[in-house]
Design a protein that fits this description.
The protein contains 13 helices and five strands. It is mainly alpha-helical.
C-alpha cells in the first residue's frame, strides 16, 4: 500500500521557531521525501491568469506592465486584476471588456497596498466584520462570526455577500465555514488593527467560540487558549492551555504538550507580575 502526501506552504510565513520547521527537518530524513520549490509566473503565465479572470485576451502592453510590476507573484497578479475592475478601469460594456490606457494606470506598489485598495471599496460595516473574521483566523465558522459580531444572521450574510462578490473570501462547501481567499488578505486585515482593538476582538472571539462550543468548550481548548492569551485574559488562557497540554499528552504528543504547558506557565506568571 502506497500513500502520497502533498503539502503546500509559503516559506515567507514559516518564521523561526515555527512548528512546521521541525516537521520539515524530520521529513527531510526520509528517503521518499522531496521538496519542490515553485518559481514565479512567466510572462505567458501571467497572460493566461488574466485570461482566466477576464475570459478575454488583455492587450500586450497591459499584460507586460502587470507582469513586470508584480514580478510574477500569482496572488499579486490576481489582486491587481481584481483591483482594476473594482476601480472601474477594466469594464465590461456592451458584451466586451474595455481596458485602460497605460498612461491612466497607477498600480498598487505592494501586495499589501493591492489588498488594502480592494478592501477600501467595502462599506465600513463590512470592513469591521471582516476584521473580526480575520481575528478568528484564516478559516472561520459562520456561527462564531455571528456570535462575535452581535449582528443578526441576515446582517452577517449581507456583509459576507459583499466580500464574496469581490472574491475576498470563499465558502467551504458543506461545512458552514468560510475562509479568506488568500492568507495575505487575512494578514493585512489583522495587521491593520490597533493593539487595543486587537486585544478586545480576541476576547470577543474567545467568548464567541466558548458559546458555540457548549457544552464542551474543552474540545477547542487550543483556539480558546490562543485567543484569551492574545486578549491578555491570562487566567482563562492558562486554563485552556493546560487542557490543551493534557490532551496532547494523552495522545503521546509530548513535545506539543510541553509547549502548551510552557505557555500556561508563562500566562500564570503574568498574573503575579
Amino acid at each position: 500500500l502506497s500513500l502520497l502526501l502533498v503539502g503546500i506552504y509559503s516559506d515567507s510565513e514559516v518564521e523561526r521557531g515555527h512548528l512546521l520547521r521541525e516537521t520539515l527537518r524530520d521529513l527531510s530524513a526520509q528517503p521518499s521525501y522531496q521538496q519542490i520549490t515553485l518559481g514565479r509566473l512567466t510572462l505567458e503565465d501571467v497572460r493566461q491568469v488574466l485570461y482566466c479572470i477576464w475570459k478575454d485576451t488583455a492587450p500586450d502592453p497591459l499584460v507586460e506592465k502587470i507582469y513586470h510590476h508584480t514580478g510574477g507573484n500569482p496572488f499579486y497578479v490576481e489582486e491587481v486584476a481584481q483591483g482594476l475592475m473594482d476601480d472601474g478601469l477594466v469594464v465590461w460594456h456592451e458584451g466586451e471588456w474595455h481596458f485602460p490606457e497605460l498612461a491612466d494606470l497607477r498600480l498598487p506598489q505592494s501586495v499589501r497596498d493591492a489588498v488594502l485598495r480592494r478592501i477600501e471599496h467595502l462599506s465600513q460595516d463590512t470592513k469591521n466584520l471582516l476584521s473580526q473574521a480575520a481575528v478568528l483566523g484564516q478559516t472561520f465558522a459562520f456561527e462564531a462570526l455571528r456570535e462575535m459580531s452581535s449582528l443578526t444572521r441576515w446582517e452577517v450574510l449581507e456583509h459576507l455577500d459583499a466580500a464574496l462578490e469581490r472574491n475576498l473570501i470563499q465558502e467551504v462547501p458543506g461545512e458552514n465555514m468560510l475562509r479568506f481567499r488568500h492568507t495575505e488578505i487575512q494578514y493585512v486585515l489583522y495587521e491593520s488593527l490597533g493593539e487595543i482593538r486587537r486585544r478586545m476582538l480576541h476576547r470577543r472571539a474567545g467568548e464567541a467560540l466558548e458559546v458555540c462550543a457548549q457544552p464542551e468548550p474543552e474540545q477547542i481548548a487550543k483556539a480558546l487558549a490562543r485567543h484569551f492569551e492574545e486578549a491578555g485574559e491570562f487566567e482563562r488562557g492558562a486554563r485552556y492551555a493546560l487542557t490543551a497540554g493534557r490532551q496532547a499528552q494523552a495522545t503521546y504528543a509530548n513535545r506539543t504538550a510541553r509547549l502548551w504547558y510552557e505557555r500556561a506557565l508563562w500566562m500564570l506568571l503574568q498574573l503575579g507580575s
